[in-house]
Amino acid sequence: MTECGNRLSLDEELRHVDQLRRHLPSAHDEPAHPGLWPLVQITSARTIDGEQVTGSDAVAAMRLLMQVRRDVDEAELRLVEAALDRGETLGSLGSACGLSDAAMADRYRRLGGRRA
Q1: Contact between residue 51 and residue 66 where contact means Cβ atoms under 8 Å apart
Q2: What pairs with residue 47 in β-bridges?
Q3: Superkingdom, according to UniProt (predicted)?
Q4: Residue ranges per structural domain of the chain
Q5: Rounded to 10 degrees, what is the CA torsion of 65, 66, 67, 68?
Q6: Which one, of 40, 37, 17, 39, lies nearest residue 29 by Cα?
Q7: pTM value surpassing 0.85
Q8: Integer distance in angstroms from the first to the last C-alpha of the chain?
Q9: Nearest-angstrom CA–CA distance, 8 and 16
Q10: DSSP letter string over 33-97?
Q11: What is the pLDDT of residues 2-15, one digit of tens each?
C-alpha cells in the first residue's frame, strides 16, 4: 500500500481511478483541472514555438495552481469527513497516510476541519 505522502505509480493511480469511476456520472471523463500540467510545463519554458513565454503567463499559471491547491484541500477535507462519518478515526487515516495521529489531526484542522 502506498502512503498518502508518496507518489502513486501509474498502475496504482489507474487502479484507484477505476475503483472510484463507478461513482461518477457517465459524462464525467475530464479531470477537475484538465490541462494544468501542460500549462505548467509550457510556462516553465522560455519559448514555445518561437513565442516568448512572459512573466504574465507564469503569473497566470501560478493563479491556476493556487486554485487547484484550494480545490484539492477542499476535496481532502470532504474525504476525511466522509471517512469519519463512516467510522474511521483521524488515527486510522493518519496510519493509512503515514502520519502520526497528532500530525493527521493538525492537517485536518489546517484544512478547516472542526470535529474533535
Answers
A1: no
A2: 52
A3: Bacteria
A4: 33-110
A5: 50
A6: 17
A7: no
A8: 28
A9: 10
A10: STTHHHHHHHHHSSEETTEEPPHHHHHHHHHHHHHHHHHHHHHHHHHHHHHHHTT--HHHHHHHT
A11: 456 566 677 776 77
